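REQUEST ID: PR-0412
SUBMITTED BY: lab tech R.K.
PRIORITY: routine
TASK: structure prediction, single protein chain
INPUT:
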Amino acid sequence: MARALEVKVSQQALERTLRMQLFNGPEGRYYLKGDATQPCAVSVEDPHVSFKDDRIVVHVFTRAKLGKAFGSKCVGVGLATDVVVSLVPEAEGEIVGFRDAKIEKFSDNAALNFMLTPFLSRELPSKMKINAADLMRKLLSQSVATTGYSLTLDSLMLHSMLVSRDALTIDVDATMGID
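STATUS: complete
OUTPUT:
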C-alpha cells in the first residue's frame, strides 16, 4: 500500500538540474549554433528559474555572433539579450516533466528568434525533466553512512503539482523500506 507524501522542489534545485543536464558546455553555455571554438556562434547561458502563477519561468541570457567567419573573426552582428520562457509542470509517472512552453520575452532579431524558438519551446522543457524516484534513491543510498539505517524507495508515483511563490509542490504516493 502506498502512502501520500508532499515533496517541495526549490527554484535552486531546478536551476541545478538545468545546469547539469543542459548548460554543461564551456563556460556553462549551451550552443544552439557553432561551439566555443567558432567565431560565429549562438549560445545561451546563466539560467534562472522563478515561479509565477501556475508556471515555472526560465530566464536565460543569449549571446549571438551572426555573420560570416573570416579566420578567427565573425563579420556580422553581435547580439546579447535575455529571453524568457514559461512552462507548466506535469507529472509523468516518476518524472517531473514540463509542457505548454510559452515564450514570454524574445529578442528583437528575427534570425536569432528562428534559432531560439525550437530550443525554448522543445529542447529546454525536455532537458529540464527530473526523475524524482532516481533522485530520491540516490539520496537514500547514503542513509547507512548518515543514519545507520538502510532506507530504500520501493515505488514512487507522482500525482499532482502546484506552483507556489517559493517551490514546486508535488503530491506523491511512495513506499519505502528501512533495514
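NOTES: The mean pLDDT is 90.
REVIEWED BY: pending
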